[in-house]
Amino acid sequence: MKTIENTLVELGTYLKDKVVAGDYELKTKEAYVAVILIDGFEFKLWIDGLRDFKFWDYSSNKMLINRCIFSEEEKQIAYDIIKPKIDKYLIDTLIAEKTKELEYLKNSLTVKI
Predict the structure, then answer these.
(1) In terms of residue numbers, what domain contains 28?
(2) At what angle do helices 4-21 and 72-109 cross, to 10 degrees?
(3) Spatial separation of the C-alpha atoms in residues 79 and 72, rounded to whole Å
(4) How far apart are CA 23 and CA 15, in angstroms?
(5) Percent of the chain with pLDDT over 70
(6) Residue 22 and residue 85: Cα distance in Å, rounded?
(7) Residue 24 CB neighbour total at 10 angstroms
(8) 0.85 exceeded by the pTM?
(9) C-alpha angle with apex 77: 73 to 79, nearest 5 degrees?
(10) CA dihedral sign, ordered 89, 92, 98, 99
């Protein structure tokens, strides 16, 4: 008989496997939290190097999130996949910010007659 617990464990394994496979989209990265999209749904990953790599949610999703535990090997694989994605996100964000700043400076220097 399928129980809620079985369903949560199955879903937790599915989500963890998606992260380990790199099958997600990085949406944002702030401090130690990366927001990712898996199958169109938003999840948060707490990333503190390899010391602490886990699903993170301070809302009511703890029933599910507590069932998504990464082994040490899975942490290493997932970290190796997400690190370049985060680096690219941070570089792209910085480029966008600096481009906007440059446009502002150009416009402020333009003398209007």
Answers:
(1) 4-109
(2) 60
(3) 10
(4) 9
(5) 88
(6) 10
(7) 21
(8) no
(9) 115
(10) negative
